Amino acid sequence: MYAVIKTGGKQYRVQPGDVLVVEKLDGEPGANVAFGNVLMLGDGEAITLGEPTVAGASVNATLVETRKGEKVKIFKKIRRQGYRRTKGHRQTETVLRVTGIEGAGKSVTWDGVVDMTTKAMMNARARNLTHVVAALEAAASAPVAAVKAEAAEAAAAPAKKAAPKKAAAKKSDAE
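RESULT FIELD:
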């Protein structure tokens, strides 16, 4: 069974167990999210179309993480005028795991377990950055204010000690 839902001005075709990246939604990691704007339900050859939405249908999902997306660079140039401007943007996005679809007298749920591992954690593990992995695991269990303080401390490099000063050359009496 699958459904077509509308969120953030876009439409997504989802099935139970799918990982979905959508525009930013409010909520903490692990929260349950329900979508009521189901435009279509499909089960094999049988299709139920909404007018505009399917009455009584909903899609349930678990919020995995909220993060910033890929960088988009905006570059403007007017040739032969010396005009160049570069700007960038990173859109916030929410990662969801679809856990169930209900509607048209049927209900389908996903049997798996929602993995709450963030993309930053997977990237740090792949690059074998043990200190970053440890900081992210501590951040997952600590409150938000403490996380920001730990991240600032981890980002600051240890201060280097100044090199010892050289002793002045001894002057001899002959000079």
